[in-house]
Design a protein that fits this description.
The structure holds two protein chains of two kinds.
Chain A lengths: L1 E8 L6 H12 L12 E6 L6 H16 L5 E6 L1
Antiparallel strand pairs in A: 1-2, 1-3
Chain B lengths: L4 E5 L6 H12 L3 E5 L10 E4 L21 H9 L3 E5 L1 H9 L5 E3 L7 E9 L15 E7 L3 E3 L2 H9 L3 E5 L18 E5 L5 E4 L17 H8 L1
Parallel strand pairs in B: 1-2, 1-3, 3-4, 4-11
Antiparallel strand pairs in B: 5-8, 6-7, 6-9, 9-10, 10-11
The chains are: A alpha+beta, B alpha/beta.
Chain lengths: ~80, ~230
């Protein structure tokens, strides 16, 4: 099964890339968009035959060990 | 007794040679260069994690390097109360290992900053003991992610334990912006609680020789040796 993990900077942390994207969009005339923040999406495969609990536990473990730095980031498993 | 040291090289390190020359010239002692896949580290007084872009800065700066084989030995070295210095990418690696608090995030203005900066010591430790209070050091920075971040509780701990080693300041003859990268409280370098591990964004190994613009970087090694 395909796993998608969304990693983003925590809300209180300055995300300067989003700010620059917002400025560019504004200059293109898209002034209705605001509070833009950029994150990252990590996709990976897991075997289909593992249980729901095992899947959750494995994802949590890779996020904590490497994929996410919980001082500055938070994550969400999509789908 | 002669001072022994080592520099760890990761794929993408680019200040390892500078760090080796810095140590050879200033310590006059034995200097080892250790590849990140090694599983043993010689008994040395100081280990440097050098600057660069280890593993291409993939995922997060320092994230991959912090899981390298040699890191267990580096942690043992630090737990033995011996000195560990992370410069620039090395500082990022130390926070990713968890030996130092906080994290280094994108510079607030999104620019890669490669220029001279000015720092002074905040709290005394063995890495800065030869530096006078209020003495301003000119040392170059070269980074994209040097904006030191930690939460308020951690910041209070860093202050209460006197773990802030260096902060950015205005240079005497310069109008350079004081805190270019946006670091919380203009922090340029911190130590661990025991003060034997230092991480700093400025590059002292680029400020020690006659051909450098400044020789202030010598003071770190002189502090450790004295």
């Amino acid at each position: 099964m395909r796993i998608k993990i969304l990693v983003r900077l925590k809300g209180q942390i300055l995300e300067p890339q989003g700010k620059v994207i917002e400025q560019s969009l504004n200059s293109l005339g898209f002034t209705e968009f605001s509070n833009i923040r950029q994150g990252k999406l990590i996709e990976l495969d897991l075997p289909d035959n593992i249980s729901k609990e095992e899947k959750a536990q494995k994802i949590d473990s890779v996020c904590k060990k490497l994929l996410v730095n919980d001082i500055i980031e938070e994550y969400e498993v999509l789908g | 007794m002669s001072f022994k040291s080592a520099v760890i090289t990761f794929p993408g390190s680019n200040c390892d040679r500078d760090a080796l020359c810095y140590l050879k010239d200033l310590t006059k002692g034995e200097v080892h260069n250790i590849w990140h896949e090694e599983t043993s580290l010689p008994k040395v007084d100081l280990v440097i994690l050098p600057g660069g872009f280890s593993f291409g800065d993939y995922l997060r700066s320092g994230a991959m390097a912090s899981k390298s084989k040699i890191i267990d030995e580096v942690v043992k070295h630090a737990n033995d109360n011996r000195y560990l210095l992370g410069i620039c990418n090395g500082f990022q690696i130390l926070t990713e290992i968890g030996l130092l608090e906080g994290a280094l995030i994108r510079n607030k203005k999104l620019k890669f900053l490669g220029k001279n900066c000015f720092i002074k010591k905040k709290f005394k430790n063995n890495f800065n003991s030869s530096i006078k209070d209020n003495q301003i050091l000119q040392i170059p920075i070269a980074h994209n992610e040097g904006n030191f971040y930690c939460d308020i509780e951690t910041l209070n701990l860093l202050k209460n334990n006197e773990q802030i080693a260096f902060e950015y300041c205005k240079g005497e003859f310069s109008n350079t912006e004081e805190n270019m990268n946006g670091s919380i409280e203009a922090i340029a370098g911190i130590t661990n609680k025991k003060k034997n591990v230092l991480g700093m964004m400025p590059h002292p190994e680029r400020a020690y020789s006659d051909f450098h613009q400044s020789q202030d970087g010598r003071l770190i090694i002189e502090s450790l040796i004295s």
